[in-house]
Amino acid sequence: MQVMILFAVLVLTYLMVIAKRVPALIRSFRFQSFFLFLATLLAAFKEKQVELYFVSGLIILVKVFLIPHFLDLMARKIKVDENLGLLVNSQLSLLAALLLTYSSWALSRNLGFGQGPLQLAAVSVAFSVIFIGAFLMISRIRAFTQVVGILTMENGIFLFASAVSGGMPFLVEIAVFFDVFISVIIMGVFVYRINKLFTHIDVNKLSQLKG
Amino acid sequence: MPIFFILGIPFLLALAALAIRRQRAFGVINSIGYLAILCSSVFLLRQAVFLKKEIACFGFIYLDALSAFFIFVISVVSFAAALYSIGYIRRDIERGAISEKKAGIYYFLFNLFCCAMFFVPAVNNLGMLWVAIEMTTLISAFLVGFYNKKESVEAAWKYIIICSVGIVFALLGTILFSYAFSISGLTKSLNWSDMVPVAHILDKNILKAAFIFILVGYGTKAGLAPMHTWLPDAHSQAVAPISALLSGVLLKTAIYAILRFGIIVIKGVGFAYFAHLMILLGVVSLVVSSGFILVQKDLKRLLAYSSIEHIGIISIGFGLGAPLAIAGALFHIFNHAVTKSFMFFGAGNIVGVYREHNMNSIRGVIKALPFTGIMALLGCFALTGLPPFSIFFSEIMIIIAAFANGSYLVAGLLLLFLAVIFAAFIHHFGTMLFGNIPKGMSVSGEPLSGKIAFLFLFFLICVSGAALIYAGKDLIWVAQRLFQS
């Protein structure tokens, strides 16, 4: 079951890499978060911890409903071209993503996450989600992808935390959720402002400040 | 408990900023609040350093000498910034650059920003430390993009994105630390005070990898090259008092976080690993910043690059590791905070009158603004490390320690680049301060509250060198215990 969830998370990350339009990207992010929710729920069920139920509730509220909904709203409101503006085309991006997955597997094996093959797999998937999130941020033009990229990295971190140490302490977990939510809203505000001032949201054209 | 005043007052002031309509009156109230914080932090510093006590409450707050020192530095600069804001914001309102309502928002964000910064050294939990540092980014992004112009929004966007990505890596590092802690058979905890006593039994490889992530993550926020790219943009576009806070103390809070993790790594892996990384990043920062300082055309960017240089010096100081070098680095944190905010206030006044960042169009500052001009000249000497001022003392401490350590290459590079930066600063400021005022420029007076802020900081720049004689022993005591606690 856990392997299936990990597999789904990885596949959804690849779908993000080959996505060419904003709605597809947001949809993939929503499903990725949904599978994180399933993973947490499963862990909560196994370990019978009330706190984990609470955390999984937060995931479904914040990452599956509120944040993607907010992003959809923003995308509709600023009415720009829906294309993501690929600096690297889909095929090459997918190849890069596969390479990143391989290197995260090598990294997690070298770091000695060897307590069972399941943990190794979980850590490798988590690392590859983090690195692919970073890759998305630098290889797409529209400012939206930067926001979704950071969220993807955050999802990877969450997966990593639950794989290696059964999640962060409860209070920290709540604070991080709050933080992610605030940061998405603030980034959304800035995307909106950029669109208003520059009449585009292409980050490669934000180059007035130099030197 | 003074710590509750320090954490509570900015929060209450933030609420009050939304309620009180008259901005002039609120500016004064704000400054009084920060004066109270400054007094509390002096009291706290006395408890932690001179009486050598550690303060902990509910496992949430943990204060030792290091945190008390950082809280003191933050409170000094935020008090000066609060004073300076009164005149600065009033001038902006008079000119119509911002509305009265927006001034209220400014004070609201200013206080939240300071509150988040005070939380950074006070919390015990390393996860909460991460949250507090991310909060400082999110709040100050609005203050960077405050004027809502193209340049400032661009700077704010770069700032928020680069720092958020950096800080995600820091979170990864934090979780790796907690993983190292949990596989050694201990209970799950992210409290620093729980981790340090058992650091020597943690897995070495994981600690090493974790520290790399921490260094990349918080190093981005600290402005260490090559992760510094957001810094000149953000610091040059922010409101002047906020530039002072960003350069003076925000970078130091990230250094604080690196130190907290560094202490665990030193105990677990050994000193050499930490030292090599810190010295490497420090030297790279020094080299990169000196190049940009030489060819710089923008006044505020010049000061921003100078911050990268000083962060490099601080990082080298901690990397050298001798008690004298650590004492020098700690002392340099204070001196740079004070001197750099002093210079940003000066730059704020100059830019306010000339309405221009470009140093080629700024001429004759001493004639146009006699007070600011003289202060900027003295500040320029202080910043580049001329003797009677405090930065000279901390830099010489680090250089002596480097020679005594046998790190001749580091000492030589430090001296070389300090000389280059000195020459560049004297050149830039010489042409700006002297000469004739451009034609058709109207000169207005300088506000009193701004002058008080200048004199307060200038007093600290002059006397803290002498204070070393009085408190030097305590500083060395803190430095000796820092990496061995």
Write the layout of secondary structure elements.
The complex is a heterodimer of chains A (211) and B (485).
Chain A: H1 2-18, H2 22-47, H3 50-78, H4 90-110, H5 117-139, H6 143-165, H7 170-198
Helix pairs in contact in A: 1-2, 1-5, 2-3, 2-6, 3-7, 4-5, 5-6, 6-7
Chain B: H1 2-19, H2 23-50, E1 55-57, E2 61-63, H3 65-95, H4 100-122, H5 126-144, H6 150-183, H7 192-195, H8 204-222, H9 230-237, H10 240-269, H11 271-294, H12 299-320, H13 323-354, H14 365-368, H15 370-383, H16 390-405, H17 408-433, H18 448-482
Antiparallel strand pairs in B: 1-2
Helix pairs in contact in B: 1-2, 1-4, 2-3, 3-4, 3-10, 3-13, 3-18, 4-5, 4-10, 5-6, 5-10, 6-8, 6-9, 8-10, 9-10, 9-12, 10-11, 10-12, 10-13, 11-12, 11-17, 12-13, 12-16, 13-15, 13-16, 13-18, 15-17, 15-18, 16-17, 16-18
Question: What is the count of distinct domains of chain B?
Answer: 1
- Taken from the alpha-carbon principal axes, the silhouette of chain B is globular
Q: Taking strands numbered 1, 2, ... along the chain, how are they ordered across the largest sheet of chain B?
A: 1-2
Strand percent estimate of chain B = under 5%
- The percent range for helix content of chain B is over 70%
Average per-residue pLDDT of chain B, rounded, comes to 89
> What is the alpha-carbon Rg of chain A in Å?
17 Å
Explain this structure to me?
Chain A has 211 residues and is mainly alpha-helical. Chain A has one domain. Chain A is built from seven helices and no strands. In chain A, helix 1 (2-18) runs parallel beside helix 5, helix 3 (50-78) packs parallel to helix 7 (170-198) and helix 6 runs antiparallel to helix 7 (170-198). The longest helix of chain A has 29 residues, at 50-78. Chain B has 485 residues and is an all-alpha fold. Chain B has one domain (138-482). Chain B has 18 helices and two strands. In chain B, helix 1 runs antiparallel to helix 2 (23-50), helix 5 (126-144) runs antiparallel to helix 10 (240-269) and helix 10 packs antiparallel against helix 13 (323-354). Chain B is globular and about 75 Å long. The interface between A and B is large, with 40 and 51 residues.
